[in-house]
Amino acid sequence: MSFFLGVVSSGVATGAAFALVATGFVVIHRVTRVVNFAQGVFSVVAGMLCAALLTLGLPHFLAEVVAILAAIAAGFGVGLVAIGRRGTPPLASLIITLGVGVLSYAVVILLWGDGPVSFSMLQGQVDVGGVTMLWQYVLIVAATAVTFGALMLFFNLTYVGKALTACYSNPHAARLVGIDVRRMGLLAFAIGGGLGGLAGVLLTPLQPVEFDSDVSIAINGFAAAIFGGLLRPGTALVGGLVLGVAEALVSGYSRYASLQSGVALVLILGIMVYQAGRRPEGAE
Amino acid sequence: MILEVRELVVRYGQATALDGVSLEVGEGEMVALVGPNGAGKTTLLNTISGLIRPASGSIRTAGRVVQVPEGRQLFGDMTVEDNLRLGAWRVRDRNLSHIYELFPPLSEMRRRRAYTLSGGEQQMVAVGRALMGGPQLLAVDELSLGLAPLVVQNLAEHVVRLNRESGMAVLLVEQNARLALDICARAYVLEAGRLAMAGQSAELRRSPAVQAAYLGGAVGEGEAVRAPATSPRTAGGGEGGGTAP
User: Fold this and answer.
1) Which H, E and C letters describe B14-73, residue by residue?
2) Contact criterion met (CB below 8 Å) for B145 and B175
3) DSSP state of B91
4) Number of domains forming the structure of chain A
5) CA triple A105-A106-A108, angle to 5 deg
6) Smallest Cα distance from A162 to chain B, Å
7) Is A165's Cβ below 8 Å from some Cβ in B?
8) What CATH number corresponds to the domain at position A233?
């Protein structure tokens, strides 16, 4: 029983981080209709940079904050390349983000080498209702909860948040009332970068990152995101948690731990087939 | 002049949508722009609104121009209040009370999502949202489209009142030429991207060409909002897709 709960708690923690990545996909897709395949890059960059800063002697927290800020900048930069030119169709932007993802390998290898990188996690564990959880897990869950709360407030209560929603709801009308849809798209990319970066600094102590870890991070995030059709952050959170727990169970109980990464792919396939069958043609 | 359009040319690729159109609207004036489907009316409005870049010609505005787009184009899954508030994006004065005074029913629907409203109510939101932008010129694209005659009459009365009371100029794009000529003092007739006629509404109403093409033959008094039998709307097919450039 305690083994089971331990597996579930680790699944919840990684799932929460997937949900952050997923929300990055969702926020960017909602505003710009672009599926940002460079989404995993933000986590890699933040994880790598955070490790490097810690090696340089920066204290924890400060290193994480700087790494997340760098991921926000990276998000903005990817946005500039992907949607900076007026009238770029979303499909072209998608291909651009794929290209940026590949290009990032070169940059990451040049800066930090091609080996796996990690750093120490929050030490110790805590007893939560009979389940022993690593502090790092608690940290991930708490950070995710706070982030989701902040996002909800931002999108539902602030004027800029509503303008972002308006860009998704009706881009033509948004332009008519004077909202600069392109600028809102860049803001969305920056938010997406920050979310990916946060996931990166939280996950790296658990799963070391390499230059090409962005693929598995993005696949997990994407699988969680399409739970809500790439449009609903709340559903992405549920999706992330389900996925995280499912993967933890597979790796915890099967003889082939590497099957873990297949879970997300199976899930993506299943959801896409289901939604393709359910949706009338031409619908969003 | 609040709006001065000179020799405007707009092209979509090889096709010429507007071919040397000149038009002006004076302060506090109500001007109609009529013409069949596909004549370029919406293109003209979108160019004035800055959504489309003209190939040549000039647009001079003295004051803010805000558009009420064809098909209303609300933020459907957002509340009425959010729709109205977002209309003030440029001006940052987000006080909604004057809109609720103008359209009292909207005040009761402020928490409802825009897509749950009837067509007429949605058009009120669309007009209200545009008014939140503090326009000196309100450019209305197809006020009457898809609405019942009584609803259209009510909305038209509101627009006329706004014009009279606050001196806001109005450029009214309408396929319902009878309505447009009734409430606007001057009118332009746009056909295939060119100005076919321009002048006082009273004169245009008497012109045989206008009567034949837009007023369904003889002029009937007091039938301002009935769609003319020869309305190009029925001949022109779908309205969809006409708004996005």
Assistant:
1) CEEEEEEEEEEECCCCEEEEECCCCCCHHHHHHHHCCCCCCCEEEEEECCCEEEECCCCC
2) yes
3) T
4) 1
5) 65
6) 8
7) yes
8) 1.10.3470
Rounded to the nearest angstrom, the minimum Cα separation between B75 and chain A is 5
> CA of A95, closest CA in chain B: separation in Å?
24
Q: Burial-class residue A74 by CB neighbours within 10 Å (0-12, 13-18, 19+).
A: buried
Query: Per-residue pLDDT tens for A160-191?
Result: 999 999 999 999 999 999 999 999 999 999 99
A167 touches chain B (CB under 8 A): no
What is d(CA B132, CA B68) in angstroms, rounded to the nearest whole number? 11
pLDDT at B180: 93
Residue found by looking up tokens 């022993």 in the block: A132
Task: Spell out which residues of chain A touch residue B241, defining contact as CB-CB under 8 Å.
Answer: none
Q: How high is the pLDDT of residue A128?
A: 76
Q: Residues A210-225: pLDDT tens digits?
A: 999 999 999 999 999 9
The answer on pLDDT for B229 being more than 50 is no
Residues B90, A170: C-beta atoms closer than 8 Å: no
Give the count of beta carbons closer than 10 Å to the beta carbon of residue A3: 9
Residues of B in contact with A159 (CB under 8 A): 85, 94
Taking a C-beta distance cutoff of 8 angstroms, is the pair A217, A243 a contact? no
Secondary structure of residue A283 in the 3-state scheme? coil
Interchain pair B89, A169: CB under 8 A: no
Mean pLDDT of A116-131: 85
Residue of A nearest to B245 (CA): A172
Query: Does A9 fall in a domain?
Result: yes
Q: Chain B: residue nearest A172 by CA?
A: B244
| Residue B103 scores a pLDDT above 60 | yes
CA distance A73 to chain B (A): 26
Does any domain span residue A283?
Answer: no
Q: Which candidate from A159, A170, A178 shows the least CB-CB separation from B73? A: A170
Nearest CA in chain A to B74: A173
Q: Which helix (H) or strand (E) covers residue B11, if one does?
A: strand B3-12
In angstroms, the CA A202 to CA B164 distance is: 62
Give residue B230's pLDDT: 42
User: Considering only residues 73 to 132 of chain B, which have any Cβ-Cβ distance to chain A shorter than 8 Å?
Assistant: 73-78, 82, 85-87, 89-90, 94, 129
Closest by CA position to B139, among listed B80, B66, B84: B66
Tens digit of pLDDT for each residue in A240-266? Answer: 999 999 999 888 888 777 777 788 888
Provide, as residue numbers in chain B, all residues whose Cβ is less than 8 Å from the Cβ of A169: 75-78
Q: Given the structure tokens 């933040």, which residue do they identify?
A: A46
CA dihedral B121, B126, B131, B133 (to 10 degrees): 150
The residue in chain B having the minimum alpha-carbon distance to the alpha carbon of residue A164 is: B86
